[in-house]
């Protein structure tokens, strides 16, 4: 397990406001764009921010946690200085949002190893299955306010 707020000690990670959760995701992936819209819809607190992996901060956070920007499994959810990855991040995010977000707990029906393999398969094939999209071009002003560029 990584130390809480370990990225604060990494000189390659730019300083950022980490007082609220941050979802680090691929801004060119259609399923990630859908995920960003779901965050915008489900996070009624309006506090979760979205950081594209293509940004300097997103790239630095990925590198800090041992991912590469071109790694298809590179989806992070930082909350209270702790990093969550793959479907564990989805489950944690859903619990954070509450309400309909709790539906993500259904993923726990699958053993952790199966969830991990399923996530990696979906991540590797995300462009072929879901296509590409431009998260940063989504017109929703509320969603645009969440983006960290």
Produce the secondary structure layout.
Elements: E1 22-25, H1 30-42, E2 49-52, H2 56-64, E3 76-79, E4 82-85, H3 86-97, H4 112-124, H5 126-130, H6 141-146
Helix percentage range:
25-40%
Please indicate the percent range of residues in DSSP E strands (runs of 2 or more): 5-15%
What is the domain tally?
1
Number of strands: 4
Main sheet: strands, sense, barrel: 4 strands, mixed
Mean pLDDT: 86
Which descriptor suits the 3D outline? globular
Describe the structure.
The structure is a single chain. The longest helix has 13 residues, at 30-42. The protein has one domain (6-146). By secondary structure, it is of the alpha+beta class. Strands 2-1-3-4 form a 4-stranded mixed β-sheet, with helices on both faces. The chain has helices at residues 30-42, 56-64, 86-97, 112-124, 126-130, 141-146, and strands spanning 22-25, 49-52, 76-79, 82-85. The protein contains 6 helices and 4 strands, in the order E-H-E-H-E-E-H-H-H-H.
Key terms for this structure?
149 residues; alpha+beta; four-stranded mixed sheet; 39% helix; 11% strand
What is this entry, summarized?
The protein is α+β, with helices and mostly antiparallel strands and 149 residues long. The chain is built from six helices and four strands, in the order E-H-E-H-E-E-H-H-H-H.
């Amino acid at each position: 397990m990584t130390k809480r707020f370990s990225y604060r000690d990494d000189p390659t990670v730019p300083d950022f406001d980490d007082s609220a959760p941050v979802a680090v995701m691929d801004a060119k992936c259609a399923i990630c764009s859908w995920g960003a819209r779901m965050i915008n819809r489900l996070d009624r607190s309006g506090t979760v921010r979205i950081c594209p992996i293509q940004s300097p901060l997103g790239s630095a956070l990925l590198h800090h946690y041992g991912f590469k920007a071109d790694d298809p499994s590179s989806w992070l959810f930082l909350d209270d200085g702790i990093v969550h990855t793959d479907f564990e991040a989805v489950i944690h995010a859903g619990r954070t949002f509450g309400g309909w977000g709790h539906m993500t707990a259904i993923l726990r029906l699958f053993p952790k190893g199966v969830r991990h393999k399923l996530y990696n398969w979906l991540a590797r094939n995300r462009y072929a299955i879901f296509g590409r999209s431009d998260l940063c071009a989504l017109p929703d002003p509320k969603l645009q306010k969440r983006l960290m560029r």
